[in-house]
Amino acid sequence: MVALSLRVEAVMGNVYRDERLGRRFHDLLSKDRADRIRLPRRDAAKNRLRVTSQRGTDVLIDVPRGTTLKHGDVLHLGEDEILTVEWLPEETMVVTLSPHEDWREGVETAARIGYMLGIKHFPLFPKGNEIVIPIEGSKEDLSKVLSSFGGVSLKVEKRILDVEPEILGYEHTH
């Protein structure tokens, strides 16, 4: 059994949301002193988790209930080292809304897509004129539902789905 090397009880900030931490992260990264734990998005909401970092450090994450680890969160910052969270890219369906002459048509299409996906409990990740949906299950079924809407284009690609948690809504766990 590997001995516990690091216990994390709180997130110290985020390298993508805090300029000072971002500079520190890039400085330590350039010196090869940055370590990461890689997590699937669904594991990021677990408040108790034991993982091994990319450099082999055994890490026990024991954060307060309700904490979601975000892509870029700092779990440890030492004098000459940093440990961050990196979400794994996942397969997604990207729905791009075509520009409409009448803005009301675009709003109506987006609302209908949101309603349809909400019925099926799919989480939505809005990004500009795109709606990004994690693919869980059949790509073809999701594509069939979405292609029934006019004025949209669809593509499948791997993405890191990092947004503020209040946007996610309800999602079934498997």
CATH C-level of the largest domain: Mainly Beta
The number of distinct β-strands equals 11
Summing up helix and strand content along with how strands pair, one would put the structural category as alpha+beta
Largest sheet: 4 strands, mixed
Helix share bin: 10-25%
Number of domains: 2
Residue ranges: pLDDT <50 for 5 or more in a row? 165-174
Order of helices and strands: EEHEEEEEEHEEHEH
Mean pLDDT: 85
Q: What does the radius of gyration come to?
A: 19 Å
Q: What's the name of the CATH homologous superfamily of the largest domain?
A: Urease metallochaperone UreE, N-terminal domain
Instruction: Count up the helices.
Output: 4
Predict the CATH topology of the largest domain: HSP40/DNAj peptide-binding domain
Estimate the strand proportion.
Answer: 25-35%
